[in-house]
Specification:
CATH superfamily of the largest domain: P-loop containing nucleotide triphosphate hydrolases
Strand order of the largest sheet: 15-14-16-13-17-18
CATH class of the largest domain: Alpha Beta
Structural class: alpha/beta
Largest sheet: 6 strands, parallel
Radius of gyration: 21 Å
CATH topology of the largest domain: Rossmann fold
Number of helices: 10
CATH architecture of the largest domain: 3-Layer(aba) Sandwich
Number of domains: 2
Distance between the termini: 56 Å
Order of helices and strands: EEHEEEEEEEEEEEHEHEHEHHEHEHHH
Length: 373
């Protein structure tokens, strides 16, 4: 077992991915030693691994904390985690059966074996694992060991809004960020979370920039990806995200559910009684009018409280008109969700009075949001 030379940021040895950022927060490489081991065996989802980049493919940058994108070069050493990926527009990938050559399946730091790809994708960036990261006791470091401690589900929870979609790249994240912005401008203390998907810094960074008082995703709860998780594990992520945001005293929680409603983990989650019990209102982001109408119908059949159609479909006035004529669910342009009066209408509650802001200040904030939109 070779000792891995690291400095305060692990940067002397490697570039640390977004998924592996918790190693730095936990002091590994500074107050706590890190080593690498090529012990035989099948890696587990979440195991941290030091890899060398052997060939640049589709992913040319490594996503790091706070949205930093670090350009990759052949010969770079990177700290990533094993995990799967389900991304119809990019890659399908699974945790490999050994420590042999593998791929960078997602820029946020997912090491995996790519089994299929979208026709427009280049071959994946190639990795050569140099060893699993182990702690001072010789135990393999896993993302689960760095997860936030689980807390009890609150007896009184915030109002929960969930954004689901027709597919990957349907405009869910833009809708979430806009809704966070509008609710924050209306005086709410908003929390935001991504419940499912593949670990990446872009979405949490955008949520924070939009004005969320507290942001987290499933990587904070111990999972590099939610692909192939059991239904009960995904439900647990939903409950823990709400509990964690409630502990931060938010009064509204905006949740993003990745991919489309036909994706297996998402479909299973939407059918569970706990999702129905935990979520007060649902927005559906669609890529086009047909998927908007079909999605609204599906959510109604599931008995979910859908309150708006939004997403990429709202970029095209003609498509918006088609969706509006074919569905009785209101069609709301994504960027209009950033207006406090629109976000408050979606929330279905009166705007709270913030004693720290005068009526003049609130009016100015509303005007700024309208100008930005």
């Amino acid at each position: 077992m070779d000792v891995l030379p690291v400095n305060a940021a692990l940067g002397a040895a490697a570039k640390v991915s977004y998924v592996a950022r918790g190693l730095i927060d936990a002091g590994f490489g500074t107050t706590r030693p890190v080593a690498v081991s090529m012990r035989p065996g099948r890696p587990r989802p979440g195991d941290f691994v030091l890899c060398e980049v052997t060939a640049i493919g589709q992913h040319k940058v490594l996503g790091q904390r706070d949205g930093v994108r670090n350009t990759l070069f052949p010969g770079d050493r990177i700290v990533v985690a094993y995990g799967g990926r389900y991304a119809p527009d990019q890659f399908e990938a699974e945790v490999p059966g050994d420590l042999g050559p593998c791929h960078l399946a997602a820029a946020g730091g997912i090491a995996a074996h790519v089994v299929s790809k979208h026709a427009k994708m280049a071959p994946p960036t190639a990795l050569e694992p140099l060893g699993l990261l182990v702690d001072e006791a010789g135990d393999v470091l896993n993302l689960r060991s760095l997860a936030r401690p689980a807390i009890a589900f609150p007896t009184t929870r915030p109002t929960v809004l969930a954004v689901v979609g027709s597919s990957m790249n349907a405009g869910k994240t833009t809708a979430v960020a806009s809704l966070v912005r509008g609710l924050a401008l209306a005086g709410h203390r908003v929390g935001a979370a991504k419940i499912t998907g593949t670990g990446a810094p872009g979405d949490p960074t955008l949520m924070a920039a939009a004005g969320a008082a507290h942001v987290l995703d499933f990587t904070d709860l111990g999972h590099p990806s939610t692909y192939q998780l059991a239904s009960w594990e995904v439900v647990s992520l939903l409950e823990q995200a709400i509990a964690q945001l409630a502990a931060e005293r938010v009064d509204v929680a905006v949740l993003e559910i990745a991919d489309g409603i036909l994706q297996q983990e998402t479909a299973a989650l939407l059918e569970t009684p706990r999702f129905h019990a935990c979520v007060d209102r649902v927005l559906f982001a669609a890529a086009d009018a047909m998927s908007a109408v079909a999605g609204a119908r599906t959510l109604k059949q599931l008995g979910l409280p859908i309150v708006a159609l939004t997403g990429l479909v709202t970029a095209a006035p003609l498509a918006m008109g088609e969706a509006a004529r074919a569905s009785d669910v209101p069609v709301v342009p994504s960027h209009d969700l950033a207006l406090p009066q629109v976000a408050t209408r979606i929330l279905g509650a009166p705007t709270p009075v913030d004693p720290a802001r005068t009526p003049t200040e609130l009016a100015a904030l509303a005007g700024a949001a309208e100008a930005a939109a």
